[in-house]
Amino acid sequence: MKRALISVYDKTGLVPFAERLVAAGYGIVSSGGTATALREAGLEVTSVDAVTGAPEILGGRVKTLHPKIHGGILARGEADEAELVANDIERFDIVVCNLYPFRETVADPAATEMDIIEKIDIGGPAMVRAAAKNHHHVAVVVSPDQYEEVAAAIEGDGIGSELRRRLAAEAFTHTADYDAAIVGWISGRQTLALSRVSELRYGENPHQAASIWGEPGASAWWAQSQQLQGKEMSFNNYADTEAAWRLASDLGEGAVVVVKHTNAAGASRGGSIANAFELAWEGDALAAFGGVIAINGELDEETATALSDRFVEVVVARSAAEEALTVLAAKKNVRVLTAPLPSADDVDYRRIEGGFLIQERDRVEMEGWATASRREPTPAELEALRFAWVIAAHTKSNAIVIARGEQAVGVGAGDQSRVGAAERAVVKAGERASGAVAASDAFFPFRDGLDTLADAGITAIVEPGGSMNDDEVVAAADERGLALVFTNRRHFRH
């Protein structure tokens, strides 16, 4: 009889899988809660201690660490048969094992240090690694997601060498990710463990190979998203959609954002989604062509109808009405996604040669603002300043954002000088700059940037402050009759 060693924490789909193993002629060896669950389902189970002749000790810390378990996993072909017989060891043909929920325990604010330590699995990784090492003779299964494929293979022609090798690779990835999480918790050292999710057609340019990789245990918006229609997502699509979705999230419910090359071409909030979309598109209709649309709300039929007349690459929303999907179905190349809002709690990695720059993700907060000019901003100006400030924080430096109410009408992004960013924002805003407000992601080093905005008719400006020439800039604001607000926090974005 073939034998299966089963020891799992996650018991999703366990019983149906074990029933298929038994039906295929496998005997089951198990222990603890796994054995209990299988017996309660009516399956015959041989306990681990019956195999080893040794009881579990140290509160269950030691049960599978025994020659009769690991000898049965690691045994090779005929060369090891005599030794197995001499030591009364039987082979295992499949090992089914997933590990204690270490990451989940660390993430639990109520967990104590001892709670976390007790979730450092020892026997599980040892069995998984042993089976993966000996994959020519033993199949290893570490996830309920693998049960169907493995069971179907057993019921068919058997588990072939290609599947065994792939299962082994996934097993080693599983234990590597697990150890990386432990290292991060116990030492604070960053161990970057990634799994390739899919190949991409190419990178930023056609001559660059590319793929998308995921962090273990992460609940990324893109990993949870549903693509409802359209071509396959590209490298640039993911980059632009990430930027658009984060900005729409920070702007709040009802916001619509148009992004091009990770910078906002337009943004708006308020009223209907369709109205917000039109205002966002009008922010810079020329730049919006071929952009990514992010909707912090539902994609409805009216908005979809408006979208259908424009060229866009991607639309991402929290949900989509069936009527909207019917409208957009005619535009088969447009990628339409629904996704949860992105998390602000993850870490930002930036690749440099031979290593990484690692930082906390930037967060936009409105606390600590203070009026630096003689004139206070009006309530309407203050509301618009807050809206512009969020967009500026999401725009490549040097960044100037001009807003009328909750509509961005001019974005100067990625300029080498601040006055240059102001000039570009003014050109994009045109006559709409008159009576509008502006946000700068970092301080004005000289008054020329403020003067550029004032000449265009800007009435209020928000910036971090902190320049050696703050007195000059404040004096310029008072001279021009502007309200100038310091946030005491900058938002560089490189």
Task: Give an overview of the whole structure.
The protein is built from 20 helices and 21 strands. The protein has 3 domains: 2-187, 3-Layer(aba) Sandwich (Rossmann fold); 226-338, Cytidine Deaminase, domain 2 (3-Layer(aba) Sandwich), CATH 3.40.140; 370-486, AICAR transformylase, duplication domain (Cytidine Deaminase, domain 2), CATH 3.40.140.20. The longest helix is centred in the middle third of the chain and has 27 residues, at 161-187. It has 494 residues and is of the alpha/beta class. 39% of the residues lie in helices and 22% in strands. The strands form 5 sheets. It has a 6-stranded mixed β-sheet with strand order 8-13-12-11-9-10. The protein has a 6-stranded mixed β-sheet with strand order 16-21-20-19-17-18, with helices on both faces. A 5-stranded parallel β-sheet has the order 3-2-1-4-5, sandwiched between helices. The protein is elongated.
Q: Give the fraction of residues assigned to helices.
A: 25-40%
The biggest beta sheet reads: 6 strands, mixed
**Separation of the first and last Cα atoms:** 62 Å
Instruction: Work out the number of β strands.
Output: 21
| Structural class computed from helices and strand pairing | alpha/beta
Q: What's the CATH class label of the largest domain?
A: Alpha Beta
CATH topology of the largest domain: Rossmann fold
Tally of DSSP helical segments: 20
Give me the CATH architecture of the largest domain, please: 3-Layer(aba) Sandwich
- Give the overall pLDDT as a whole number: 92
Shape: elongated
Give me the side-by-side strand order of the main sheet: 8-13-12-11-9-10
Beta-strand percentage? 15-25%
Residue runs with pLDDT of under 50 for 5 or more positions: none
CATH superfamily of the largest domain: Methylglyoxal synthase-like domain
